[in-house]
Write a structure and sequence with these properties.
Helix content of chain A: 40-55%
Oligomer: homodimer
CATH topology of the largest domain in chain A: Creatine Kinase, Chain A, domain 2
CATH architecture of the largest domain in chain A: 2-Layer Sandwich
CATH superfamily of the largest domain in chain A: Glutamine synthetase/guanido kinase, catalytic domain
Shape of chain A: globular
Number of domains of chain A: 2
Largest interface: A-B, 19 and 19 residues
Number of helices of chain A: 13
Distance between the termini of chain A: 20 Å
Structural class of chain A: alpha+beta
């Protein structure tokens, strides 16, 4: 089953407030006693770390149905695909040392080994589901702690490579789709500022260092120390709640200017159907308008399932996986345009008009 | 018969070098003995002028099948339609005094009465046909001279209100479609400069004061004095010939980048099909790409006939005529988008796929 067909993946399109919240992520940073922090590991020690994790975690992985992937066995394209499915971070992909990832088939759980911290557990949900994702993360964290000795200080909490993660080692984040706010450049700036004032970090869809595009914003808690997990979740929920109200208000206004809305949406559809050269960032921006239009029940727009396919398959790694070889950026822009035209040119198959 | 269906109109799409030269115009400025120049006329004198012309020219008009239109009987919308069909100038439309125009049903000949000069004769042809248009203008000029006493000095030639027109009183111009040059902003600047160096004036599609849009450029001779009509025609032919070679060279290059070409053309088609708000200048720019694509035999593009319909019917006056009332600019942008979507959404009817 492809990831966009699976309702339980982060990209499933369901869940609470899914008109605005694409997905929820809870990430826990953990380290293992007896090993230096990742930044200090040499190749041999890194091998030892991966080896130890593999041996100790195999029973848990089996029980949970997780797959073990040693990253050095993968091609750069396959690694990029994992980044785009959010199973590994760009940092893990870039590592020269032995690393690995354990993940479930639905891409809702991933445990990276050898990232900035020895272990980085990620739990994803579609829509807004911070508490549910946290409970799952918590449960898995307990299971991991039974397999491996985790570095923990009674004074500071979980010890991490970077002090900003020390304490809970937790970062909670949500990916928000804010097209109405983004249509007014000033409003999105105000929104970003206001989230920062509430102690949140705002990033692009692929985390640290990624540009905001497609009107997608990843919002996460800045601090991890000095607050309980539930307090962190509560503060993110508050910030996200504010954004949701703001975006919905502006969408309501948009709904009262249906011509303006249709103009933006159908220009985007027309451009996607016509383009023969299409950059990743332009594709995301245009897809954003289609998602917005679909939420307003405008006709002839791709279903959420098709939208999810377009979203994932137009990413560089997925394009290259589809082509069966590496593509330079120019080739990708051609392949992306071709793929988009193909998917959008079969309204009966792909535009969600099937029952 | 609508103007875009008539092969003999300036917008017919035929004629020599019609891949680049949309149309040719020869204009003669003439004044009538016994009347002050137009700028000095009061209402009564202007009435007298129009009256005299009507009386004296009726036999000729009858013989040639021309229609007499007194402009004060027309609504502002109808006047604007005449401007867009190029039968009257924007200056004539703006006059407060009595004015008139005589024109043939195909809109290839128009004789304005009461413009900057008493008489302004225009002859239009589609494609490049300066000599043919000149011969027609010359023949009509002789016929007019038999009906009315024209102001002529053996020293200076035909006398005109503005000294820049004195002499031949002739301005020859062609409307060029230069999309390949315009796709490279630098090249179009070079081309414009080089035409000016050859003594040509470069304007937008609706003459003096109009912005270049749709990659359409009206090129005309700057001087009228001290050269014969045939010398003026020759110098414009030379300048236009240079432009034609230049544009064709760049189109050949474009043809070697078919993906780039298709990207521009089908994005334009997609945008025209999707837009719900469409300004006149954006419409012209997008239509320019469709015309270019059609010349490269790309599929699914409007025929020249449909293109001509789109070109004329999206002009403000034609939109208002179609709506049966005046429209403000915002209403026109909606009406224009609606009309374009309608015409482009019936490929069987309108896209020239009929035999």
């Amino acid at each position: 089953m492809e990831p966009w067909e699976e309702k339980n993946t982060w990209l499933g399109g369901g869940g609470e407030d899914s008109d605005i919240v694409i997905s929820t992520r809870v990430r826990l940073a953990r380290n293992i006693e007896g090993f230096s922090f990742s930044t200090k590991l040499n190749k041999k020690e890194a091998e030892g770390l991966v080896q130890t994790c593999q041996t100790r975690l195999i029973p848990l992985a089996k029980q949970e149905g997780w797959e073990w992937v040693a990253l050095e066995t993968l091609s750069p394209v396959s690694k990029q695909v994992l980044v785009e499915r959010r199973l590994i971070s760009r940092e893990l992909k870039g590592k020269d040392l032995p690393t690995a990832v354990l993940h479930d088939p639905q891409a809702t759980i991933s445990l990276m080994i050898g990232e900035e911290d020895h272990l980085r557990l990620q739990v994803f949900r579609s829509g807004l589901a911070l508490r549910e994702a946290f409970e799952t993360a918590n449960r898995i964290d307990d299971q991991i702690a039974e397999c491996l000795p985790l570095s923990f200080s009674h004074q500071y909490g979980f010890l991490t490579t970077c002090p900003t993660n020390t304490g809970t080692g937790m970062r909670v984040s949500v990916m928000l789709h804010l097209p109405a706010l983004a249509l007014t450049q000033k409003e999105i700036q105000k929104a970003t500022n206001s989230m920062q004032e509430m102690g949140m970090t705002v990033r692009g869809p692929y985390g640290e260092g990624s540009q905001a595009s497609g009107d997608l914003f990843q919002v996460s808690n800045q601090r991890t120390l000095g607050a309980s997990e539930l307090e962190l979740i509560q503060s993110l929920e508050n910030a996200v709640g504010t954004m949701i109200l703001w975006e919905r208000k502006l969408r309501k206004d948009l709904g009262e200017s249906p011509t303006f809305l249709k103009d933006r949406v159908y220009r985007a559809l027309g451009t996607l159907r016509g383009a023969h050269i299409l950059s990743s960032s332009e594709a995301l921006d245009l897809l954003s308008m289609l998602r917005l239009g679909r939420l307003f029940n405008l006709e002839g727009l791709p279903s959420h399932e098709t939208w999810n396919r377009l979203f994932l398959l137009t990413q560089p790694g997925h394009l290259m996986e589809n082509a069966g070889r590496e593509l330079d950026p120019t080739e990708r822009d051609l392949a992306r345009a071709r793929l988009v035209r193909k998917i959008l040119s079969h309204p009966d198959d792909s535009l969600g008009t099937r029952p």
